Every structure is written in C-alpha cells, then in structure tokens.
C-alpha cells in the first residue's frame, strides 16, 4: 500500500492535478491532505471538489480557517490579505462548511497528520528548525507524522537527538520517530517551483519526497485573469 500525502495546494488546480496523476503512476492507492486547500491561486472550489472526491483524510490549515471567518484580515501580509478576500467571495456555503468541520490533527492508520505543529496546532506555528520540531515530537504518539505550512519539504528524525536530514528518501527504523514536511503542492517556497508531495510506502517502510512539473503558465494566467495580485503568479515560477 502506498499513500500520496500532499498539502498547501492553495487553489493551484494545475499543480494538484499533476500531483494526483504522478501519484497514480507511482502506484499510490490512498491519499491524505495536510491542509491549506485554498488561498492564493484561482481555483479554490475546484481543488476542494477534487479533495472531496478522493474521500481522503484531511486536516485544517490556517488558510482553510481564514476562508470561513468573517473577521478582519489585517493580520495577514498584503498579498495573503487580497488573496483571502477574493477566496472568501468565491466559496459557496457548502464549501465553507466542509472547511469549517475539518479537524486540526488526525491519526490515519499508523501515522499522524497536522498542518502546522502538534503541540499547538491551532496557533499555526512554523517548524523551521530542529528546536521547533522537538516541541512537536513531544506530542507525537505515532512513529510517523506528516505536516506542511512552511511550503518547504523537510525530514526530521528523533533518535537520541533531533536532527534534520538532507536526503529526500528515508528508510523508517524501529526506535525512531519521523516528523516530515511534505512541502507544497501548489506554492513551493524552497526555490524549486515544482509541485511537492510525499509517498509513504507501507510495505517497504520508506517515505520519499517527490517533485513534479506542471503547467505553471496556465496556473499563472488564471491568477492574473481572476484579478488576483500579479505577484502571486510571478512568485510561482520563483518557488518563493
């Protein structure tokens, strides 16, 4: 059994479709979403529909939460604020209800999923180093946990200490825990524009980060045509 684990789709339908196609080609039969389906790009409803069609486990991301609120967006940066105002206007009540009912943390089979951190999942804290990861490991009761939020793939391993590794594939070992950022399907921020997701091979006990080409020009054109800030289109090609 292979799981395709993706998140931070951010309404980028072209990237999401490429991820799903690649996952099928790799023999993935199960799907899991680590949140932030909406926000930034031009196809929030379509991306939500695809996630719902999959019937897969999903957790709520911070943009998913902002999309269902009516409170001020003044705390967001200008780009995120404009994108979220647009997103709120383009989600129907049924789509909003779906996002509203998502949990912050879920256990799937023998692993856990969360959007941000396990210690304070609703505070939307970023895990950017091993010290941040330590806090989540303290609340991780499965060997394996997948998360997102930073838009940067990263694998942390806890044995005698907590350390990040540079490899994109890891062989799971008994006695160790793994906190794995699957990267962003729709808006990577590690300098690589390609869509990112992870494959968890249950039989082989491996996790690998995948990078996938997609029709980035089409996604950019949609953002501009929708009247969203042009920088949201431009940054896709920068991977930032």
Structure write-up:
α3 packs across α4 (78-89), α3 (62-68) packs across α5 and α7 runs antiparallel to α8 (230-238). The mean pLDDT is 96. The longest helix is centred in the first third of the chain and has 13 residues, at 13-25. The protein is built from 8 helices and 11 strands. A hairpin with a 4-residue loop joins β10 and β11. The chain starts with a strand and ends with a helix. It has helices at residues 13-25, 44-54, 62-68, 78-89, 93-100, 130-137, 216-225, 230-238, and strands at residues 2-6, 30-33, 105-108, 111-114, 144-147, 154-158, 162-165, 169-171, 177-181, 195-201, 206-212.
Question: Which helices and strands occur, and which strands form pairs?
Answer:
Elements: E1 2-6, H1 13-25, E2 30-33, H2 44-54, H3 62-68, H4 78-89, H5 93-100, E3 105-108, E4 111-114, H6 130-137, E5 144-147, E6 154-158, E7 162-165, E8 169-171, E9 177-181, E10 195-201, E11 206-212, H7 216-225, H8 230-238
Parallel strand pairs: 1-2, 4-5, 5-9
Antiparallel strand pairs: 1-10, 3-4, 6-7, 6-9, 8-11, 10-11
Helix pairs in contact: 3-4, 3-5, 7-8
């Amino acid at each position: 059994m292979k799981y395709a684990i993706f998140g931070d789709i951010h309404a980028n339908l072209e990237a999401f479709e490429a991820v799903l196609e690649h996952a099928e080609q790799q023999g993935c039969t199960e799907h899991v979403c680590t949140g932030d389906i909406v926000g930034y790009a031009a196809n929030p409803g379509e991306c939500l529909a695809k996630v719902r069609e999959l019937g897969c486990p999903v957790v709520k991301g911070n943009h998913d939460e902002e999309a269902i609120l009516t409170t001020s967006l003044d705390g967001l940066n200008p780009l995120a604020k404009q994108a979220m105002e647009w997103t709120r206007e383009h989600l129907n009540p049924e789509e909003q209800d779906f996002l509203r009912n998502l949990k912050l943390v879920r256990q799937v089979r023998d692993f856990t999923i969360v959007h941000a951190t396990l210690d304070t999942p609703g505070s939307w804290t970023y895990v950017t180093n091993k010290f941040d990861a330590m806090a989540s490991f303290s609340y991780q009761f499965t060997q394996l946990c997948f998360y997102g939020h930073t838009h940067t793939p990263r694998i942390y391993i806890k044995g005698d200490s907590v350390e990040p590794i540079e490899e994109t594939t890891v062989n799971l070992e008994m006695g160790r825990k793994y906190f794995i950022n699957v990267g962003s399907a729709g808006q990577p921020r590690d300098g690589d524009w390609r869509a990112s997701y992870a494959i968890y091979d249950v039989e082989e006990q491996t996790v690998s980060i995948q990078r996938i080409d997609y029709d980035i020009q089409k996604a950019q054109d949609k953002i501009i045509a929708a009247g969203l800030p042009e920088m949201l289109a431009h940054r896709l090609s920068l991977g930032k």
